[in-house]
Amino acid sequence: MRVAPVLVLCLFGGIVGLVAQPSGKTLDIYFVDTEGGQSTLYVGPSGESLLVDTGNAGERDLTRILETLQAAGVRRIDHLWSTHYHGDHVGALLAVAKQVPIGHFYDHGAPHPNDRIVSKAFLTSYEEVSRGKRTIVKPGDKLRIAGLDVTTVASANRYIRSNVGGGGRPNAACAETQQKDETSYIDADNGESAGFLMTYGRFRTVNLGDLTWNGEIDLMCPTNRIGAVDVYLTSHHGLERSGSPALVHALQPRVAVMNNGTRKGGAADAFRVLHSSPGLEDLWQLHWSHNAGLDNAPATFVANVDDQAVVAGVLTAPAGQGGRGGGLGGGAAAHTPAHMITVRAQADGTFTVTNTRTSFRKTYRSRE
């Protein structure tokens, strides 16, 4: 449901910033800070809503999600898409379902049998809350949202084999991308992630959850079925386990948004691949990464930044003592207040990205 086009000052549960209410025919995207998890809200031109993932369990992420819904004028979640069943992606789902009506649920089906961290208790409760209104998506499936084209491109370790939009060209980046040994991963459900390509007119964005490196190769090689996108949400929080050249360089995003935490994601290898991607204009981050040091984006493009003393300590610490590395875990206290990155896209392909911490925004004109 749409509300009047005004600016709302959000002073709630840790999120502070000016969030522009949807107005007119736009696609609005809200990248919620879940401290290295994922929760992304899409509000289409008709006001229809899609919430992808629900962050971690507990009041912190629940409050941030609920208040984002309120700021966006969303009183009902029309579609709730779970990329996979890890706690940083579905942690607040059951709590959200108690607070907000949900029209339909989407997921990749049964978890990977070798995953050792998926909660069986959650799965039982999820089956109950989604009963009668759940779709297990397959590559090629469409999610019906007025004014948008949402196509499933990956699900349950299967990948789309037909061309979508501008896709269908050989992917030259496959030659520089070697597979990794993923046999030791205890979190195998990452590779099952259900992901999609969303198109609004000439604007294109992709969300692949925590799809891992080898899955990206299976999706994108030898043919790039997806084509180029305008906004790429980094796979797997910017961990070195994902974000391969075969994916990133083929997508050729103009903007990348990294849903990292201070010590989770934001790996140096992920930055290297992004910065070498043809056509990338800007990287926006939900957090300044301790793992990246000087490779972090300029502060105007980072939604949540540690105080100067912490940043200085990370930058001047001897190698191996500043928190640098892959960054699989947490370790840092939650940022309060929290800030978001938002995107407002028009059907002609023009879009504006905003950092709610500083109200800094940048408009990217449609590709010719």
- The end-to-end distance, rounded to whole angstroms, is 33 Å
Helix tally equals 8
Q: Reading side by side through the largest sheet, how are the strands ordered?
A: 8-7-6-5-4-3-19-20-21
Structural class: alpha/beta
Secondary-structure element series: EEEEEHEHHEHEEEEEEEHEEHEHEHEEE
CATH homologous superfamily heading: Ribonuclease Z/Hydroxyacylglutathione hydrolase-like
- What would you call the quaternary organization? single chain
Average per-residue pLDDT, rounded, comes to: 89
Task: List the uncertain runs.
Answer: 1-23, 321-332
CATH architecture: 4-Layer Sandwich
CATH class: Alpha Beta
Architecture overview:
The chain has 368 residues and is an alpha/beta fold. It has a single domain, classed as Metallo-beta-lactamase, Chain A. Helices cover 18% and strands 26% of the residues. It is built from 8 helices and 21 strands. The chain has a 9-stranded mixed β-sheet with strand order 8-7-6-5-4-3-19-20-21, with no helix packed on it. Strands 9, 10, 11, 13, 14, 16, 17 and 18 form an 8-stranded mixed β-sheet that branches. It is globular. The relative contact order is 0.14.
